[in-house]
Amino acid sequence: MKIRRSLLLLYCLAANAAVGDSVLLRPDAVFDGQEMHSGWAVLVTDDKIAAAGPARDVSPPESTRVIDLPGQTVMPGMIEGHSHMFLHPYNETSWNDQVINESVALRTVRATAHARKTLDAGFTTARDLGTEGAGYADVGLKQGIHSGIISGPRLLVAGPAIVATGSYGPKFSTDVDVPQGAQEASGVEEVTRVTREQIGKGVDIVKVYGDYRWGKDEPSRPTFSQEELNAIVQTARSAGRPTVAHATTPEGMRRAITAGVETIEHGDDGTAEIFKLMKQKGVALCPTVAADDAISRYRGWKRGSDPEPPRLTQKRVSMKAAREAGVTFAMGGDVGVFAHGENAVEMELLVNEYGFTPIEVLRQATSGNSAVFHLADRGGIRAGLLADLLAVEGDPTQDISAVRQVRLVMKGGSIVRQP
Ligand SMILES: [Zn+2]
């Protein structure tokens, strides 16, 4: 009896010690998702931020582990808005060959490495927008990360995504039916069924392709009808899921916005009128400028020496129109088209090529994306939020490339990267 009681006491003490685990981060400055504050400290207890503010006002409990981070800025873990964990750069292997020739097993092995690279780069959450032929492997990847089997960001996954029958790829001879990079559906009844099926299998987000190239070497044109898009968005919404749309053409964008999607991915040929509609309906733009840049480079373009490809010139025009219309931007690069872990390329291009200030882009990647993606428990530094944090060398509000100088990554209060 006595032995049992003392064992119980020991157990309680151990449990209390685990519950009370605290870490105090003392950097030069803290970016809280909105503003920079010099001389702040951040206290983490268990998986949450317990306090953040001027260092003298943050009083850590006894036995708190103190980590001094001189010359560094602590900021919220960044949120990648558009990745494909199941793709790797197209200059290594074309999209067609990845979808057709790489097994789901191989692609999943790659995805586990991509997840680790993403987290190490300071991205503690990612919206993964389609496995491109790997079915629901992203649902399994997310489970593997969540249960601690592998290391990676918190994921919001879209499964196979939905395309209009015949509109997507890969495309080979008319005599050969090849597996497609997304799930095909047509007609209000079928798109409703497929949306429900995907939700049942575990997608957090329904992704549709609102337009695409119907044939090789032709421009994108709308795919789903207004009625089909309405049915998808309403079906997803009633199940508590947002719908997001790949769309680059004005008409594809218009239909998706009218249907009620929450974000437009790419938006390359958006016009002033379309962006005005986006602003009105509160739809955010995830511009993926890094993907446009990467694809231009893969086609042989060299920045600085070669004339700018029409694709990038058009992107400047539409980005300017979107900003003038006051559209909300979600930071997301279409990572996978280029290397995982290089997520910061999008942020650098937004500053260096598209005229955003570093702090605007830092807000997009933290508090901005948390608001657009309904992630109220993260994206900032204040008491009660998840302790998803990173420390970078220098001041990213002065030089955006400082976000590449990652010195420490914390996810849910656990240090997952430290030099
Ligand atoms: Zn994409």
Provide the fold topology.
Blueprint: H1 2-19, E1 22-31, E2 36-38, E3 40-45, E4 48-54, E5 65-76, E6 78-83, H2 95-101, H3 104-120, E7 123-128, H4 137-146, E8 154-157, E9 162-164, E10 183-185, H5 188-200, E11 206-209, E12 211-212, E13 221-222, H6 226-238, E14 243-247, H7 250-259, E15 263-266, H8 272-281, E16 284-286, H9 289-298, H10 310-324, H11 344-352, H12 358-372, E17 389-393, E18 406-411, E19 414-417
Parallel strand pairs: 1-5, 6-7, 7-8, 9-10, 11-14, 14-15, 15-16
Antiparallel strand pairs: 1-2, 1-3, 3-4, 5-17, 12-13, 17-18, 18-19
Helix pairs in contact: 5-6, 6-7, 7-8, 11-12
The structure holds zinc ion (ZN).
Overview of the molecule:
- The protein is of the alpha/beta class and 419 residues long.
- The protein has 2 domains: 19-76 and 380-417, Urease, subunit C, domain 1 (Roll); 78-372, Metal-dependent hydrolases (TIM Barrel), CATH 3.20.20.
- The protein contains 12 helices and 19 strands.
- It has helices at 2-19, 95-101, 104-120, 137-146, 188-200, 226-238, 250-259, 272-281, 289-298, 310-324, 344-352, 358-372, and strands at 22-31, 36-38, 40-45, 48-54, 65-76, 78-83, 123-128, 154-157, 162-164, 183-185, 206-209, 211-212, 221-222, 243-247, 263-266, 284-286, 389-393, 406-411, 414-417.
- The strands form 5 sheets. Strands 1, 2, 3, 4, 5, 17, 18 and 19 form an 8-stranded mixed beta sheet that branches. The chain has a 4-stranded parallel beta sheet with strand order 11-14-15-16. Strands 6-7-8 form a 3-stranded parallel beta sheet.
- Helix 6 (226-238) packs parallel to helix 7 (250-259).
- Mean pLDDT is 95; it is low at 1-19.
- Zinc ion binds at residues 82, 84, 129, 334.
